[in-house]
Amino acid sequence: MAHQKVLMSGNEAIAMAALDAGCGFYAGYPITPQNELIGYMAKHMPLSGGVFIQSESELSAINMVFGASAAGCRAMTSSSSPGISLMQEGISYIAGAELPAVIVNIMRAGPGLGNIWPAQSDYFQAVKGGGHGDYRCITLAPSSVQEAYDLTLSAFELADKYRIPVFILGDGMLGQMMEPLTVSGPGRPETRDQRPETKEWAASGCAGRKPNVVKSFYLNMGDLEKFNLKLQEKYKGIQAKEQLQETAYIDDARVILTAYGTMARIAKSAVEKLREKGKKAGLLRPITLWPFPRKIFNRLAVSDKQLTFLTVEMSYGQMVEDVQLAVEGKARVEFLGRSGGGIPSEEAIINKTLQLLKN
Amino acid sequence: MDKKDNEQRISGRENKVIERLVISGFGGQGIMSLGKFIALCAMRENKFVTFIPAYGAEVRGGTSHCAIIISDKAIASAQCEEIDTLIAMNEPSAIKFTPRLKKGAHLFVNASMAGKPRRLKGLHLHHIRFTDIASRLGNAKVANMVALGAYIARKKILSVRNIIKILPEIFKQNTLLIHLNEQALQEGLKTK
Amino acid sequence: MKKVFSRTKSLRDADTHYCPGCGHGIAHRLIAEVIDELGVREKTIAVTPVGCAVVAYDYWNFDCVESAHGRGLAVATAIKRLHPDKIIFTYQGDGDLAAIGTAETIHAANRGENLTVVFINNTVYGMTGGQMAPTTLIGQKTTTTPQGRSARTEGYPLKISELLAQLPGVYSVERTYADSTQGIFKTKAAIKNAFKNQLENKGFSLVEVLSACPTYWNMPAAESLEWIKKTMSKEFPAGKIK
């Protein structure tokens, strides 16, 4: 079934990719706009001998993922913003126990119950922590159904490679939207035995080895500090190796639009329209939100160059703070954003860019 | 790693999105299935396409709609703020979406279930009895395919031959249904 | 010479951190003995709690997964579903199982997960310094009920075992006292049954062990054992509940 083109929603594509990646455990609680994902899992997970559980809450779902991962299985949960808030305790424990896990957030508008329209206002929560303690989650931001599939495959690899929680950060638009998708996965494991090997650190019964303990508790202060330093080293390695972005027309650009996810598609369309008019606009789309692609910003932002980064978000200014940190004052940083269900329009982006190009 | 493969060549001629289409009506009128079917046909013709359904609380209360964008180039936003074509299968949804139609847009209204809309300056109205035509074929449910036929007859977005080729896949080789839907499509094409 | 006693294999060679007279050490040992007797050490995975028994993994000599406070049965559910041939148990205190984790407890029980639960009820939060637990008795003084628990403001002691016994998914519920040699033998028998049930795929089995906390009951160890029998037992009678 390699390279077959199918029409699929972002939610379904993520679920399908998870199964293609050998995910053997999914737990989740229904919430709009990601219900197609849990629905797909309920239908397809048992067919490959995996475990699907509709949990009593998101709190329970994330702790089930904790247990599944501790037992050596590739595991995933998904939710939308309010549900992800409820999961923060478990995500911190997963980070603290150095467990691989994939967490999908199909963002909706907040705060509180908010509404079900697409938004990008959980950037801080995903990228800066969300739960307690000094931990990080790799955060991947797909902008199309195809990329949702591809990045979900990567998410499982990264989670295992670094023993770290990995976020897929999409929005309601991406989750609901159907687009053509070329299925390029390694081919779905047909039985449980074909899934990736149980990990040597996992708690799966101590036959023939010393007992394993999966925990995030360090009673002695010195031990916890040592563990935290080890985590920080790991994070540094990820920052050095895993930054990922898409760029277009940046070489001679005077205003570079910076946006992620579905927002970046609108920004890109704006850039193309501006280029048609001969205006020097470019696009820098972070694909990894953590690690934030600082390197490219460092390279572009040189103090003797008159350059503006216009950050466009479906929020009132979250990623823009990372852009500011990344350019280190060597370029102008401007912001355009809407949230609560509103999306900055192509026209608004073009107008703002034209205005910035003038001065 | 840098993905820098996405710079499309800018030609002098504007790359235009072909079509922003909204289909609306009651639940049970095959609104979503028609939308997905059109998206599938567009995909098979190697076009860029997005389909976005109404979801959540918006679909409560019996109304239903979806938006499809078909384009020659990558689609920026799947949301249809401005509509090129509206296929409204009932009156409430015709009233709801008509204000979002662009100048010169096509408006297909199911005359079996909706009166002639007012304030149509600059729009092409096609007021056709989709449900009645479908009922004459023996099944009111294929009104959506009649509407598709009427739409394709006026805006040649998709090839009729391809649509007919894809029908068996949708109806899982059920010859009765395939035949019925093809008939409905043909009746729709004849409305021009 | 005939060997009459040897180290329980499922226990590590470690001193526990528990207070004199605490019931946790007894319960740990009983579980370890049962696991040895059933010969399942190498396929046992314990889900350890937050509370005084938080470092139980330092005392048990088999695989352990430490869960967040109250989430033990969610964690255990996932492990058991993925490893149905392994023996999974949770070890949880009253705050863990019957306050912060009530939802996880009830839903795992209601799903009839084939798990063993050892529930240590000592009517008080030990690790945080003697606060009220869901099972604190009416009139019992704790640092958060300095005048004694009042039903009017704090409600009644939560009989979670009786509550769980109502659920069709639950196979067995038993309450025992770790207050005397006899009580300890009965506790061990109940724990063994709860593990056997899992081995036989019978479903959710819970043993509630009334256990002494002399430190936060403010009484000498011997007196605290008496208190289990004389006072606690009135609210929490021993026996097979289901």
Q: Can you list the strand order of the major beta sheet of chain C?
A: 2-1-3-4-8-7-9
Number of helices of chain C: 9
The CATH architecture of chain B is 3-Layer(aba) Sandwich
Structural class of chain C comes to: alpha/beta
Q: What's the structural domain tally of chain C?
A: 1
- Distance between the ends of chain C: 45 Å
Description:
Chain A is an alpha/beta fold. Chain A has helices spanning 10-20, 35-44, 58-70, 81-96, 123-127, 145-162, 172-176, 221-241, 261-276, 294-300, 319-327, 346-358, and strands at residues 4-9, 25-28, 51-54, 75-79, 101-107, 138-140, 165-171, 178-183, 213-214, 245-248, 255-258, 281-286, 288-290, 308-313, 332-337. Chain A has two domains: 4-205 and 229-239, Rossmann fold; 245-358, Rossmann fold, CATH 3.40.50.920. In chain A, the strands form three sheets. A seven-stranded mixed beta sheet of chain A has the order 3-2-4-5-7-6-13, sandwiched between helices. In chain A, helix 1 runs parallel beside helix 6 (145-162). Chain B is of the alpha/beta class and 192 residues long. In chain B, 35% of the residues lie in helices and 25% in strands. Chain B has six helices and seven strands; from the N terminus they run ββαβββαββαααα. Chain B has helices at residues 31-44, 91-97, 130-136, 143-154, 160-170, 175-190, and strands spanning 2-3, 17-26, 48-53, 63-71, 83-88, 101-110, 124-128. In chain B, strands 3-4-2-5-6-7 form a six-stranded mixed beta sheet, sandwiched between helices. In chain B, strand 5, helix 2 and strand 6 form a beta-alpha-beta unit. In chain B, helix 3 (130-136) crosses helix 4 (143-154) and helix 4 packs across helix 6 (175-190). Chain C is globular. In chain C, 37% of the residues lie in helices and 18% in strands. Chain C is of the alpha/beta class and 242 residues long. In chain C, the strands form two sheets. A seven-stranded mixed beta sheet of chain C has the order 2-1-3-4-8-7-9, sandwiched between helices. Chain C is built from nine helices and nine strands. The chains are: A alpha/beta (359), B alpha/beta (192), C alpha/beta (242). Chains in contact: A-B, A-C. Strand 9 (213-214) of chain A pairs parallel with strand 2 of chain C.
